């Protein structure tokens, strides 16, 4: 299998794992001290935005660099949520679905040799597009596991 298709499959799988749990949890329940499902989806959409920007720069022949998370990952994480504060859950959910669709469409256009070429990552350091996916897919799955644990605990109480 080509690297491009491996990345697409990996991102589709992590998204499917998350989507499988969303309808089973109260949308207003805190998953983390300050985040509900809405904030988690906003956070993940924000990181999809970062990868979309990274891929677009590659496709335009540029050199991705320290961009969205130049001030640090924690600052960027907070911004991914705060910039979406006025949006309803449904709006955030639609964006969550749409950003991944955009990312997958862009990945189809990336030349195979660009997938393993090292660039400056959005938060600094060097890595490849493959590295980005290997970071973000498991990250999404970690959030999905936290949600699943809450769902499982609620079902045991019922």
Sequence-ordered SSE layout with sheet pairings:
Blueprint: H1 3-22, H2 37-59, H3 73-82, H4 89-107, H5 112-115, E1 119-120, E2 126-127, H6 129-157
Antiparallel strand pairs: 1-2
Helix pairs in contact: 1-6, 2-3, 2-4, 2-6
Would you mind describing this structure in some detail?
The protein is mainly α. The protein has a single domain (3-157), classed as dinb family like domain (Four Helix Bundle (Hemerythrin (Met), subunit A), Up-down Bundle), CATH 1.20.120. 66% of the residues lie in helices and 3% in strands. It contains six helices and two strands, in the order H-H-H-H-H-E-E-H. The chain has a two-stranded antiparallel sheet. Helix 2 runs parallel beside helix 4 (89-107). The longest helix has 29 residues, at 129-157. It is globular, with a radius of gyration of 16 Å. The mean pLDDT is 91.
Q: What is the gist of this entry?
A:
With 158 residues, the protein is mostly helical. It has one domain: Four Helix Bundle (Hemerythrin (Met), subunit A) (Up-down Bundle), CATH 1.20.120.
Q: What descriptors fit this protein?
A:
158 residues, mainly alpha, Four Helix Bundle (Hemerythrin (Met), subunit A), two-stranded antiparallel sheet, 6 helices, 2 strands
The overall strand count is 2
- On the 0 to 100 scale, the average pLDDT is 91
- Count of helices? 6
The CATH class label is: Mainly Alpha
Largest sheet: 2 strands, antiparallel
Predict the CATH topology. Four Helix Bundle (Hemerythrin (Met), subunit A)
CATH architecture classification name: Up-down Bundle
Overall radius of gyration: 16 Å
Order of helices and strands: HHHHHEEH
Relative helix content: 55-70%
- The neighbouring-strand order within the major sheet is 1-2
| Uncertain segments | none
